[in-house]
Amino acid sequence: MSSQYHDPANVTNPEHSEHHIIGPGTYILVYVSLLILTGLTVAAAFVDLGILNPVLAVGIACVKGTVVILFFMHVFYQSKLIKLTVTAGFFTFLVLITMTLSDYMSRAWGLW
Amino acid sequence: MSAATIVNLPDQKTAVIPKKNYINAEDGILSWLFTADHKRIAILYLISITFFFLVGGTFAGLIRLELLTPQPDLVASDTYNKLFTMHGIVMIFLFLVPSIPATLGNFLIPIMIGTRDLAFPKINLLSWYLYMFGAIFLSAAIVLGGVDTGWTFTTPLSTHYLNTHVVTAGLGVFIVGFSSIFTGLNFIVTIHRMRAPGMTWFRLPLFVWSNYAASVLMVLGTPVLAITLVLVVLERTIGIGVFDPTKGGDPLLFQHLFWFYSHPAVYIMILPGFGVISEVMSTFSRKRVFGYSAVAFSSVAIALFGFFVWAHHMFIMGVSNYSALVFSLLTMLVAVPSAIKVFNWSFTMQKGSITFETPMLYALAFIGLFTIGGLTGVFLGSLGMDIHLTETYFIVAHFHYVMVGGMLMAFLAGLHFWWPKLTGRMYPESISQLSAVTSFIGFNLTFMPQFMLGYLGMPRRYHSYPPEFQVLNVLSTAGATVLGFGFLMPVLYLLWSLKYGKIAGNNPWQATGLEWQIQSPPLTENFIEMPVMDHEAYDYEWLAHKTEQEVTTVG
Amino acid sequence: MDNAIVATHDTHVEEHHVELPQLRHHFETEEQQREAGTFGMWLFLLTEIMFFGGLFFAYLLYRNWYNPAFVAASNQLSIPLGTVNTAVLISSGFFMALGVWAAEVRKKSLLVLFLILTNIAGLAFLGVKAVEYKEKWDKHHIPGAHFDITEFVNPPLNPKTGKPVEEPLSPDMAQKTQLFFVLYFAMTGMHALHMVIGIVLLFWLTYRANRGEFTEGYVAPIENFGLYWHFVDIVWIFLFPLLYLINRHPGT
Amino acid sequence: MHISPVLWQFLVKWLNASALFPREASTIAPYTDALYFFLLLITIVGLTLVGALVFGFAIRYRKERSPIATQVEGSTLLEATWTIIPLALFLICFVWGALLYFRIFNPPANAMNIYVVGKQWMWKAEHQGGQHEINSLHVPTGQPIQLTMISQDVFHSFSIPDFRVKREVIPGRYSTVWFEATTPGTYHIFCTQYCGTKHSGMIGEVTVLTPDDYKKWTEESTSGMSLAQNGERLFASMGCNSCHSGSATSRGPNLANVYGSKLKLANGSEVLVNEAFLRDTILNPSQHVPVGYAPIMPTYQGQISEEGLIDLVEFIKSLKTNYRVQQTLTTSESNQVTPQDTTGVVKP
Ligand code: HEA
Ligand code: HEA
Ligand code: CUA
Ligand SMILES: [Cu+2]
Q1: How many H helices and E strands in chain B?
Q2: What's the pTM?
Q3: Bridge partners, B459 (sequence order)
Q4: Facing B349 at nearest CB: one of D57, D74, D86
Q5: Superfamily of domain B5-553
Q6: Smallest Cα–Cα separation from D203: which of D213, D215, D189, D192?
Q7: How far away, in angstroms, is B254 Cα from ligand 3 center?
């Protein structure tokens, strides 16, 4: 009876993926690009770009964060489930930010 | 396919408590305090939350006694304020949030999905310790003189204008919050990673689905409460001023952050209850749940949309009119999945073969009371109506209908339903039916008048009130007394049944879930051999088939 | 028969795997256990995102309301120190990543080395942070009773040009610099707290790594700690531009 | 059973004195009640429907009558029905509620403004004409009243159930609500937001008078100084006039006619000058610097009470020319004499 229903895909979940080992080469590449990006934000901070200054700073931070998540944290090689989980986290974070912000923005900004 | 009802199994009469089970697997209090067995942890939780329910209930009793007369006569104003604050905090954070997930969920989810334990047994134990640790803080706050912020910790009142134990209580809630985060985390991982072979998502019992949805809310919502409380505590202790208007902070920011957790929290509280109702309705109608996937998806939809509506608690608090509009609309949307569930449960009964044991009575009470509670929530979600109703007893009635009439009834339904599995013994049937009816009547008598009081304009958190509100308040207090008896009875007879209850056997309800196919009380390892799921959830034909086979093999 | 549906499924799945001592009894396979661990860690990190989320929102809000104050207060932070610290932290993350690799390819001494390097970088970060905090203390920029706004109302004069080094703030706006520092300390403090916890864990992991526990195929603790450590990095990656770099252009 | 007549009388009186439905005493009330009855109707229909289903099935399919259950999968058609119908009903509730909300929170242009200051644990009302009340409020019928409210300490909430209006009173920020009373009488004012120990004592009474009675009341209870006049005095004594002198050389901007105008700010935005803006510029001047001015105005945070701020705001609102400012200048120069006699001065 048992083998008939046996579904090995379910023991190790269908959501799993192969364990992937990332070598030092990738890490060095990532490391260097992170340092470069850090230099870039600092440099950009000294250039007057008006409204674009904070946008650029946060933009670069996002890129750096993504790189860390994808490579240092291996998400690039992980199962869909993990990718989805990470996305869900940032999604909820964005819900918090945007929905709250939308309340403040539709009032008189800065004047309550 | 020919329909199937199941003749009672012979095992009920000949049943004995199995020699080896999780309860007697090890002896001594330490074996409980250091257990990693999800079932034992569930029992630890059950004992603790029952204790705190009685504490919270006693506060409720005192509140109702005070409100018997319009004058402030039983207790002083600040004592009254402490009473409802501690009633709210204890009931919500120490009772209702952990109620079903941490007890029934903890006990049943691993068994239902066919595994030996939760993914992280030690973290599970840790979460009980965190709960107890937080509870100690809260008890300390109570014993040392109480808090009187209201369970909502409204700033700047809580940060600058009160001299009570806000910090202690805040830290207590903070710690309890982590207990609930870890429970949720454990459930999610377990449900994703540890299902038995053949246990696909759409073969999961609906109880698992709804707990899964609640866990997502716990994991993503609770941290926001945690950081908010940290800021409140810092503001009180070193005066940092993030929420203080005199320092340029915004008290509304607190409201946003608090309700970002606390609205999802109400779904943390109700969703596991939904799961229980699905199980109970199906079992006592001997029929699969009508529209399985609709019920499953509606849980997920509630969890998802639950994050988008928090500002409906702030409609008159000074949010912009436009965002009030958006949040009101979303509130209406989030009410729809609940409606879907209610109708699906009703239709589960159609063409069934229904019996009315206690869990079913509680479940029927749930459906009625939750419908009232939910639809009055729609009153509150409707902007213009909310202006008149907010901060009045209408709200008090609304949330007691969903939390007590809904979740507490569901908890009792589940507790009775799975009591045989938890303990191996039956609860006494007729007295428990009596208590179900008593609490139903008492409940309505308590909280129905509060709807009227609310529309009349009686504000909540009022220690004294104008005399023309007295009649309704007297009714409410009378109801609370009945309700108190209705809730006290189960505590007593369930304790009694531990020793004197009839021995239940493996599957007294002839239910289909995996948990009913193993001995009761279960073994520490749950299963002797790992199960393989080869049929849908709620497959009564499979069960009938199985029992027939068993009868022949045994006989 | 208690478990009629409970059937023995073929044991060959398990046979493929070396039974490790670390396999907890309730997991079917080692792989299942590892994936459960990773997933659990990620869920925990989600709660961290939301935890910091509240602070980030508060920052966003007040930065927009009290922009001049936030700019002035932000200019009090030392960019060189911040930049160095960012680099230090990124290096620490880099070593950590290498540590995970070392564990995966079962090189014990490398693993220990990288863990120690990670830890050194982490401690260095905290050291620099302490220097910065000390400076805030000296300048009375710690929110609370000793907070002092004179520097924002009457900024010191630049000896060369004779002009104030900073745009002076009116007193009411200067008061709001306190909010900046509140958030600065709340955010960096919360971050530093995570670092401290991480460092304590690192010592313990290094000790265990040195005993060879993680180089026999059981790498989950190292991997999961790595996730935590990188997450703490990411928080800093956002904190650094937000706190140190806003509107730092030479014009003002 | 015999009930003593005394007890009986008491019971009857007690029951008679108890309310079951609030009075409708404002123009809003009928609208709110209409929505309420609509929502009640939905609730009753929904509850009856669910009740009928549950009880119907419970009776029809109880085990005795239906010993064998027939397994049913579900029905997409039914699912769609009970998704769409409740959704439609809820959307009606939403639209209706939203319309009512905007009606309640958007005062008509001709509303008479009364200020309300909430503090632990009392309500203070300030009428234009300088009438001050504590825990009571006198209003005429047939005249839209706008309440501009602020709290000195914590959140409070101003509620008049019989008018069906309520709004949170927020620390540090004006909030408004309006109503038009229809029936003379007295009605409860409640503080409905929990605000500390004596929250339930923070109650009062609205007295609705006919316009004639109201006029009589205003005359009898005036303090002799209108809000604007009080403001004028403050304007001089706080030294505002030293900068806002109205002359071309003054360091501060001209305040005449500033109320209601659109102001260009130094940070590029444009704001409508209303009460809230005026209040906030006095407390946080450097956040609202108009184009062309240096942010030199000192903050008056903590120096002026909420009532004082209201007076100042009313004074600035009343400034149509700089005549009165110059008046204060002369009076304050002449030894800070309080301008007692301003009533006699003819405003140009
Ligand atoms: C378990 C807890 C729980 C649950 C499930 C809910 C469910 C809902 N709640 Fe409730 N709520 C609370 C607990 C809960 N609430 C608490 C504790 C407070 C007060 C907090 C405080 O201030 O202290 C509160 C306050 C509260 C407010 C704020 C009021 C205010 O402060 O002004 C609002 C406003 O929108 C609201 C709305 C809703 C809605 C729309 C739902 C919906 O999810 C309900 C959906 C359900 C249904 C709609 C019923 C089923 C429908 C049918 C059977 C269909 C009927 C058929 C037809 C119409 C044909 N609630
Ligand atoms: C899970 C949540 C939960 C539960 C189960 C209850 C249960 C009850 N609640 Fe509570 N309640 C809240 C959550 C809950 N409540 C919250 C969140 C608030 C808001 C707090 C705030 O404003 O901050 C509130 C507020 C609240 C108020 C409003 C106070 C105010 O605004 O001034 C009232 C008033 O009637 C009330 C009554 C009751 C009653 C009669 C019960 C009954 O169901 C309780 C019945 C149970 C027992 C009675 C215990 C068992 C019996 C005994 C131990 C024997 C002794 C019995 C007697 C002495 C009678 N509650
Ligand atoms: Cu003021 Cu309650
Ligand atoms: Cu809500």
Answers
A1: 19, 0
A2: 0.92
A3: B392
A4: D57
A5: Cytochrome c oxidase-like, subunit I domain (1.20.210.10)
A6: D189
A7: 18
